[in-house]
Design brief:
The complex is a heterodimer. By secondary structure, chain A is α/β, with parallel strands linked by helices. Chain A folds into two domains: about 55 residues, no CATH class; about 120 residues, Rossmann fold. Chain A has six helices and eight strands. In chain A, the strands form three sheets. A four-stranded parallel β-sheet of chain A has the order 5-6-7-8. A two-stranded antiparallel sheet of chain A has the order 1-2. The longest helix of chain B has 29 residues. The chains are: A alpha/beta, B alpha+beta.
Chain lengths: ~200, ~600
């Protein structure tokens, strides 16, 4: 079904419906991360797909990220927008928001980190089990933003490693979703090896 | 302890106040006359009136300040019972003979007479001011903030330690000789332990050696603490017997940053104070500068400002109610309410191009005109919102489980709320009908037909009631604003010293090109003086105190944060209750860390 734009009476946001099918879907191909597209093999009535264990594990990890929102400021409000009904991150399997670092594998640092909060951020990051990923959401987490000031960390990579940086002040929910998809691709390609 | 490299953006190099034209407020004569009446009434020695200000202003001798505050508080004709603000200002070139380099400013409000007064105390380095916590308990944190920012000691203060910056911080950042980018690192080892004081009514537990009190730390990383708040509680079983809040986890130096940027450049910083209702902060700041410049935005711009303020007020309440209910375990409302909020954000996006923090206002008007379908879209949102408000209210307010969790929880008496300096919905939930939009109307709020909702009890339930009703009242204002239509005309003042000339003119006219260059290079230069302007934000009175020295950078910008006294009182509200009550209470206060910590 082609993408269509729908105007609704009661709402001022134009909606879109339908999806743009990928090339592989039409041909009946299955893509596993890190490998070329391949056809499903039919061996004596049963269907098999041969691949490497690491590819399957990375495929699962990338599709079920459990975010820990380290939300401090304005970006946290946009994070809430992304989780809530209109944008709905559960479409990409990352809606299981956990506030306990021990139950999460993706830390989204949403907002300004100041020097007083820096030891807390480090501690929370240390408490997360491997494998763990970090998204620096917004200008403040990326570089301190326009707060070149006496109490603001000039980018969280002073403290913890970062996988994806999202520009914007604050980034739009679409922007953050794009970052999560980019991270998924990165994980599935096997580019992140830590721990 | 190590310091990081210096990366000053624009260090303060400006001159001391110049001999440019002084600022004369429009109502200076009225205020001077009123000031003389007040001085005669309290009849205190050691006060001198400062004339030509926008509020009745007195210079008070340092050791007389507590007596003067007490007199203003107690006098039956005055009743300045509400401490609105306390802050400092630094004039390093002022000699010790004329009082010393620092000003400590007190601003009080009288609910009885609907008037304000400003007191100033001059103090030199290494001198101290007597503490006024005995008169206004809300001044506890304000004095700590002045100590943190300026190093002014308050003699007799019960707990004078740093509040916004961390323990390893050296120096006092708002002093003019402090480099804006000089950072100090904090590591795990530097963090001091906080032990809450046991409330007087539970002191007997300390003596009883059979029981041991448990100390529990909540936050700053805790789902109910919204990322940046921290409270340490002492528990006897499940009962909280003492609590101490710690803030500063989002202190991003708004006031210092304002001093290093031009007047126009401060606007995006004000967005990020209360980021849930950004436009209202813009309105407050822009109108404060406009007041100083003696200009007024065109009526079309004012109309859009009012409409966006009300839309953002609704969005602010939606975030507050939605997240508070999430903290209570009701996730549905959050998902449901964020849908209309998304429409409000889309409206702001259609005007300015930005979603959450539009920075849409300019000093003297708006950045650009609104799109042609602005009113039609606004009408659509006003049509759809009542359904959402009604349904969520019906879903929770008659819900037995919900009411059991919020009724009688987090109570603060009316007297305490006033004494702390509460404003906004939290004050109105204790039965005080104070709303800046009614008390000192701006943007033409006096011409609209609407009511100030109040509730009794001062508990979490009352705060919910007030917020739900305020959304309805905002919708009433919005419907009237839509019916009146947008006034025709420009959205920026026609003043080349404030507004950039249109691009077409810049390219074709020599004079416009010069004005453009002058404004970009030298900025807006208000007359020398000080002013205060207040608006009603999502959480209460958002006020901006400005000092201009005639240069392009503000000499001092003080934003009055409505959350500050509210979170200060939080410890008192939860003492004697349980942890789940504390969680329910915190959400209903709508503490926004951006403005709490500046």
């Amino acid at each position: 079904m082609p993408v269509q734009k729908i105007e609704r009476e009661e709402s001022i946001i134009p909606r879109k419906t339908g999806y743009a099918p990928g090339e592989g879907a039409e041909k009946g191909l299955i893509t596993l991360p890190g490998e070329a597209e391949r056809e499903v093999e039919d061996l004596g009535g049963a269907t098999y797909l041969t691949t490497r264990l690491e590819s399957v594990v990375n495929w699962a990890r990338g599709n079920s990220l459990w975010p820990l929102p380290f939300g401090t400021a304005c970006c946290a409000i946009e994070f809430m927008s992304m989780v809530s009904s209109h944008y709905d991150i559960s479409r990409f399997g990352a809606e299981a928001v956990r506030f306990s670092p021990r139950q999460a594998d993706l830390m989204i640092v949403a907002g300004t980190i100041v020097d007083k909060l820096a030891p807390v951020l480090k501690k929370i990051y240390d408490q997360m089990p491997e494998p763990k990923y970090v998204i620096a959401m917004g200008a403040c987490a990326t570089s301190g933003g326009f707060y070149r000031a006496y109490h603001v960390v000039q980018g969280i990579d002073e403290i913890i490693p970062v996988d994806i940086w999202v520009p914007g002040c604050p980034p739009t929910p679409d922007g953050l979703m794009y970052a999560i998809l980019k991270l998924r691709d990165k994980i599935q390609r096997g580019e992140i090896r830590r721990g | 302890m190590s310091t990081l490299t210096k990366l000053s953006a624009i260090p303060y190099t400006g001159p001391a106040p110049t001999n440019r034209t002084p600022y004369v407020p429009a109502d200076a004569a009225v205020m001077d006359a009123r000031g003389q009446e007040i001085a005669a009434k309290i009849a205190q020695p050691g006060i001198t009136q400062e004339s030509g200000q926008d509020l009745p202003t007195f210079l008070v001798e340092t050791d007389r300040i507590v007596a003067v505050l007490q007199a203003l508080h107690d006098h039956a004709d005055l009743r300045f019972t509400m401490p609105l603000d306390l802050f400092g200002a630094d004039y390093p070139n002022r000699p010790r003979e004329s009082g010393g380099r620092f000003d400590v400013l007190y601003q009080l409000y009288s609910l009885q007479n609907n008037e304000r007064v400003r007191l100033k105390v001059r103090v030199a380095e290494n001198e101290s001011v007597p503490t006024s916590v005995g008169v206004f308990q809300g001044y506890d944190w304000y004095e700590r903030e002045v100590f943190d920012m300026y190093g002014i000691q308050f003699a007799g203060h019960p707990n004078l330690r740093r509040i916004l910056t961390h323990e390893n911080f050296q120096g006092h950042p708002l002093r003019k000789d402090y480099d804006p980018a000089q950072r100090w690192l904090l590591t795990d080892g530097g963090i001091t332990k906080i032990m809450p004081k046991i409330a007087p009514q539970f002191q007997h537990l300390v003596a009883d050696s059979d029981f041991e009190l448990v100390t529990l730390n909540l936050g700053p990383s805790h789902p109910a603490m919204h990322g940046t708040l921290r409270v340490v509680v002492s528990l006897d079983g499940e009962t909280i017997v003492g609590a101490e809040q710690e803030i500063g986890y989002l202190h991003r130096c708004f006031e210092k940053m304002s001093e290093t940027h031009t007047y126009q450049q401060v606007i995006p910083f004000t967005d990020r104070l209360n980021y849930c209702s950004a436009v209202i902060n813009n309105v407050g700041y822009c109108m404060a500068v406009e007041k100083m410049l003696g200009i007024a935005a065109p009526s079309r711009a004012d109309h859009v400002r009012l409409m966006l303020s009300e839309f953002y007020r609704i969005a602010d309440h939606i975030v507050c109610i939605g997240t508070n209910l999430v903290d209570l375990g009701a996730l549905t409302n959050f998902w449901y309410l964020f849908q209309p909020r998304e429409e409000i954000i889309a409206l702001a996006e259609s005007c300015s191009g930005a979603r959450l923090l539009p920075s849409y206002l300019r000093i003297g008007g708006l950045a650009v005109d609104v799109p042609g379908d602005f009113l039609a879209n606004a009408q659509k949102i006003v049509n759809m919102l009542p359904k959402y408000v009604d349904e969520v209210e019906a879903l929770v307010m008659k819900n037995r489980i919900f009411r059991d969790r919020v009724e009688g929880v987090g109570v603060l008496s009316q007297a305490d709320a006033i004494n702390f300096g509460f404003t906004g919905p939290c004050l109105r939930a204790t039965g005080v009908p104070f709303d800046v939009r009614k008390a000192s109307p701006y943007l033409g709020y006096e011409t609209y037909d609407w009511d100030v909702p109040i509730a009794d009890g001062g508990d979490t339930y009352a705060r919910f009631l007030v917020r739900f009703e305020e959304m309805r009242q905002s919708l009433r204002i919005l419907q009237q604003a839509i019916d009146r239509g947008l006034p025709p005309g420009p959205v920026m003042v026609d003043n080349p010293y404030v507004a950039l000339p249109p691009k077409a003119k810049v390219y074709n006219e020599m004079e416009s090109l010069i004005y453009h260059f002058k404004l970009i290079m030298h900025g807006i230069q208000p007359p020398v003086g000080e002013t205060y302007f207040q608006v009603e934000g999502g959480n209460g009175e958002v006020g901006f105190y400005l000092v201009s020295d005639g240069t392009k950078n503000p000499y001092r910008v003080r934003a009055r944060p409505p959350c500050f006294p509210i979170f200060e009182a939080y410890g008192k509200m939860i003492t004697g209750q349980t942890i789940p009550d504390a969680i329910a209470t915190l959400g209903s206060l709508n503490i926004i860390a951006g403005e709490l910590d500046h």
